[in-house]
Specification:
mainly alpha
């Protein structure tokens, strides 16, 4: 005895419940305008560019805009690369040159194991 026709033991009832649930979920996910109806508690991010913001902050006119001003990070990166290359060119190439430089800087012999 399988019970009443509305029992979940009945295969037809089980199939109807599964299909109804499936279509309800699909409708909720894909319903038109479902994303528009959601009100976010956070404000929308500003899309104003940093250039127009800088122009407004500094009060620059149209003839003196931020396009003429470069961002400082690329300039700092370039200066760091130039300084590092200059440092590498001054580096000792041989052990005897390194020992000579060590004695010149610290006015003493290099420590034991310096050559390793």
């Amino acid at each position: 005895m399988s019970g009443s026709p509305l029992s979940l033991a009945n295969p037809r009832t089980r199939l109807a419940v599964i299909l109804t649930t499936f279509f309800a979920l699909v409708y909720l996910i894909l319903a038109p305008g479902s994303s528009d109806s959601y009100a976010s508690p956070y404000p929308k991010p500003r899309t104003e560019s940093w250039k127009s913001t800088a122009n407004r902050w500094f009060g620059w006119s149209a003839e003196n805009t931020v396009e003429e001003v470069q961002h400082p990070i690329p300039k700092l990166m370039h200066e760091a690369q130039v300084n590092f290359r200059a440092l590498i060119t001054k580096q000792s190439k041989t052990l005897s040159a390194a020992v000579k430089e060590y004695k010149k800087r610290y006015k003493r012999d290099p420590p034991k194991g310096f050559d390793e």
